[in-house]
Automatic annotation (TrEMBL):
InterPro entries: CTAG/Pcc1 (IPR015419). The keyword DNA damage does not apply. GO terms for biological process: tRNA processing; tRNA threonylcarbamoyladenosine metabolic process. This is L antigen family member 3. One of its GO terms (cellular component) is nucleus. Keywords: Cytoplasm, Nucleus, tRNA processing.
Length: 81
């Protein structure tokens, strides 16, 4: 697995932890496809979807800045391999 694939997976794991509150009426679906993180937002009220998107992009920006600051993930060492 290449580093960029790992980065997409890390972003997925971090961003999928927080589901949208039920009262928001928004659904968020995240899927990793190789090195691409696909995100689908849906909802009935444009204002609520916009708020959800803004919050998501704030989190995504923080995740990408953190990965950029600390560099690519290191391979995991196992003495069993």
């Amino acid at each position: 697995m290449k580093n960029i694939d790992v980065e997409a997976e890390i972003a997925y794991k971090v961003l999928s932890v927080d589901s949208e509150p039920r009262r928001s009426g928004i659904q968020k679906i995240l899927v990793v496809d190789g090195n691409i993180l696909n995100v689908k937002f849906s909802g009935e009220e444009a204002r609520k979807v916009r708020v959800g998107l803004t919050s998501f992009f704030d989190s995504l920006t923080l995740v990408t800045q953190t990965m950029s600051e600390f560099g690519p993930p290191e391979p995991v060492y196992s003495h069993y391999n």
